[in-house]
Design brief:
The complex is a heterodimer of chains A (417) and B (308). Chain A is 69% helix and 3% strand. The longest helix of chain B is centred in the first third of the chain and has 35 residues. Chain B has one domain: ABC transporter involved in vitamin B12 uptake, BtuC. Chain B is mainly alpha-helical. In chain B, a hairpin with a 5-residue loop joins strand 2 and strand 3. The chains are: A mainly alpha (417), B mainly alpha (308). Chain B: Belongs to the binding-protein-dependent transport system permease family. LivHM subfamily. Chain B: Keywords: Amino-acid transport, Cell inner membrane, Cell membrane, Membrane, Transmembrane, Transmembrane helix, Transport.
């Protein structure tokens, strides 16, 4: 087939694909269903799509050359001032200081978005341990997130447990769930594992939705108290007799901004701890074993590593970070319902890991920032967010399966001159 | 006593109806898995698209003045199969073919991305609300005492079961008798060797995707008419359940997918009939987890040997 014919056929197929679903829309009229031509916007989309496919097919070789380049390009080079570990340390300090003073300089809304971003950073880092380092595709990660969130919400509702007591319990409980789920399922092969974890995440959500007596069902749990600073509350008036509020203690005027800043700083501390812990774990024997196992299962086993216990370690540790993030999420929102823990949420976290580069912490952090801040900046594109996420996952797998900033092992090179 | 038997039989009949559509969707999973060893995560979305196209075709054709319900259904079915097949073909071409030979996880992530993309594409194109279809075929066969205990099998249920059986017979003939079917079986056994023998395995894989998509479209149309509603999110759960059916029967085995679909449908409708309807999805997922743990080869599948 000549190039023009094949381009023509491709355009024709695109027309069939789009013609029915994009070109016509269904509406109910009384009890009858009628179909009418779509709005001009959709028709334009269809037309642009058809032309685009035609051109892409026509210039296939050129496009192919571009994609090969994308794939072979090992990694985007770090800028010159970041090469040596000393420089990196200095810059990391600068960034951390910058993040610490950020809330005092910017608006309340920006701080709020930053807090949300930090939650996703934490989730991305946690899932990165499971997917990126250990190579186990976990599609039910949101299940552990839900466990963490509901642990704090329920403990507080029934026993009045405060956030700081509930945080370690939430992490521990999520880890326990991870352990109990991982124990039987981790001997499954990769793609089966993915489906089983997906089923697990859905089961958790359906249980939360239907166990109305305990969890409030679809109505969720409201009025979850915010965390306190050593017992100092951030509300205008103390919630109970004898408690002190933050502004009274320091003798300053009340402002709701203190609460937002405090939540941000807390999220930042949690993220920094997460980064540090995972950084150390990667350099520990277990971290090296994760990566070795991801690269070659059989070689690992023949070297005497126990794959099940190593995978279990990754699964449990990853789950515990989701638990921490979940309880913080519950405290920040003040309200949780099963709606927040759908499969889509898992997919977003997975997209963050995939975009950042599996295994790379810096990549995941940058990806989490991009994925949460960009949709906030471009509110009008909010509708298209998930569409673009899906498209991006496909394109990343085709063009750069290693991610934008893949992990680089320290290596030595002989200088030749 | 007789009442409880009738109730039981009614649940079985409902289960067989749902189960046969699960079986139709499951064939798409099982055939693709049998040949290229990947889970086509976007298959559930093809089913959803099939339902949408069928509804659009039904509404459009009846506006054109065709009022014979059987002619209408047959024509809508043809349109739905055509469009869904185009989707199956394109999905493979765009999202999976460039990844041939890479790791399983890479292909699976691409499939998940495709699934999210399609779901949101339909949400944007057709809106996220439920679209209801007035029921076209009413009435049914009544067994037993109409005022007392009886079972009712609607004409729609009969149509679903008959169509499914016809599709299964057609598929079996295609796989066992035709030249392409033989190529499919050969590819499932050893794709490299098949290539060496001069069969273009890319074509065989494309055909597999098209057949899977066509059967999913049939299921989509039938279930759409049975339930009377469609929204962009039905593909996810249906896909997961059909995958469960494929695993239950033994993934890679076509009779297994049929059997698995029926077993899953019946167990689901028995749960809904005797326990609680809310937890019927939990039953399906738990079944999936348990099968994968204790019987990963399924009922009719062959145990998979790990090759080094």
């Amino acid at each position: 087939m000549s190039r023009v014919t094949s381009a023509f056929v491709a355009a024709l197929i695109t027309l069939v694909l789009g013609g029915f679903l994009l070109g016509m829309s269904l509406t109910s009229e009384g009890i009858n269903l009628v179909v009418e031509a779509s709005s001009t916007g959709k028709i334009t989309f269809l037309f642009v799509g058809v032309v685009l496919v035609f051109l892409l097919q026509l210039f296939r070789e050129q496009v192919g050359r571009f994609t090969t380049k994308m794939r072979s390009d090992e990694r985007m080079e770090l800028p010159g001032f970041l090469r040596t570990p000393q420089q990196q340390r200095v810059w990391t300090m600068f960034v951390i200081i910058g993040l610490l003073i950020f809330p005092f300089l910017s608006s309340r809304g920006a701080v709020d978005i930053a807090t949300l971003t930090l939650i996703y950073v934490m989730l991305g880092l946690g899932l990165n341990v499971v997917v990126g380092l250990a190579g186990l595709l976990d599609l039910g990660y949101v299940g552990f997130y839900a466990v963490g969130a509901y642990t704090y919400a329920l403990l507080n509702m029934y026993f009045g447990v405060s956030f700081w007591v509930a945080l370690p319990i939430a992490g521990g409980l999520a880890a326990l769930f991870g352990f109990l789920l991982g124990f039987p399922v981790l001997r499954l092969r990769g793609d089966y594992l993915a489906i089983v974890t997906l089923g697990f995440g859905e089961i958790i959500r359906i249980l939360l939705n239907n166990w109305t007596e305990l969890t409030g069902g679809p109505n969720g749990i409201a009025r979850i108290p915010k965390p306190t600073l050593f017992g100092l509350e951030f509300s205008r008036r103390p919630s109970e007799e004898g408690a002190t509020t933050f502004h009274e203690f320091f003798g300053i005027g009340y402002s709701s901004e203190y609460k937002v800043m405090f939540l941000y700083l807390m999220a930042l501390v949690l993220v920094l701890i997460t980064v540090y812990v995972i950084r150390r774990l990667i350099r520990m024997p277990i971290g090296r074993a994760w990566e070795a196992l991801r690269e070659d299962d059989i070689a690992c086993r023949s070297l005497g590593l126990n794959p099940t216990s190593i995978k279990l370690g990754a699964f449990t540790i990853g789950a515990s970070f989701a638990g921490f993030a979940g309880s913080f999420f519950a405290a920040r929102q003040g309200f949780i319902s099963p709606e927040s823990f759908t499969f889509i949420e898992s997919a977003i976290i997975l997209a963050i890991v995939v975009l950042g580069g599996m295994g790379s912490q810096l990549g995941v952090i940058l990806a989490a920032i991009a994925m949460t801040v960009l949709p906030e900046l471009a509110r009008e594109f909010d509708e298209y967010r998930m569409l673009l996420f899906g498209l991006m996952m496909v394109l990343m797998m085709i063009w750069r399966p290693q991610g934008l900033l893949p992990m680089k092992r320290p290596h030595l090179e002989l200088k030749r001159d | 006593m007789s009442e409880s038997i009738f109730y039981f039989l009614q649940q079985i009949a409902n289960g067989l109806t749902i189960g046969s559509t699960y079986a139709l969707i499951a064939i798409g999973y099982t055939m693709v898995y049998g040949i290229i060893g990947m889970i086509n995560f976007a298959h559930g979305e093809v089913y959803m698209i099939g339902t949408y196209v069928a509804f659009i075709a039904l509404a459009g054709l009846s506006m054109l003045g065709i009022d014979n319900p059987f002619l209408l259904i047959a024509m809508a079915l043809a349109v739905s199969i055509l469009v869904a097949s185009a989707y199956g073909f394109s999905i493979e071409r765009v999202a999976y073919r460039p990844l041939r030979g890479s790791k399983r996880l890479i292909a699976l992530i691409s499939a998940i991305g495709m699934s999210i993309f399609l779901q949101n594409y339909i949400r944007l194109a057709q809106g996220s609300r439920d679209i209801a279809m007035p029921s076209m075929i009413q009435g049914g066969f009544l067994f037993g005492d109409p005022s007392g205990s009886h079972i009712m099998i609607s004409y729609m249920q009969v149509i679903i079961m008959v169509t499914t059986v016809l599709c299964m017979i057609g598929l079996t003939l295609f796989i066992t008798r035709s030249r392409m079917g033989r190529a499919c079986r050969a590819c499932a056994q050893d794709i490299g060797m098949t290539n060496l023998l001069g069969i273009n395995s890319n074509n065989v894989i494309a055909v597999t995707f098209v057949i899977g998509a066509a059967l999913a479209a049939v299921a989509g149309m039938l279930l759409g008419l049975y339930y009377g509603v469609v929204n962009p999110y039905i593909g996810f759960i249906a896909g997961l359940k059909a995958f469960t059916a494929a695993v239950l029967g033994g993934i890679g085995s076509i009779p297994g997918a049929m059997l698995g679909g029926l077993i899953l449908g019946i167990s689901e409708s028995l749960t809904a009939g005797y326990l609680t309807a809310e937890y019927k999805d939990v039953v399906a997922f738990s079944l999936l987890v348990l099968i994968l743990l204790f019987m990963p080869q399924g009922i009719l599948g062959k145990p998979e040997v790990e090759k080094i």
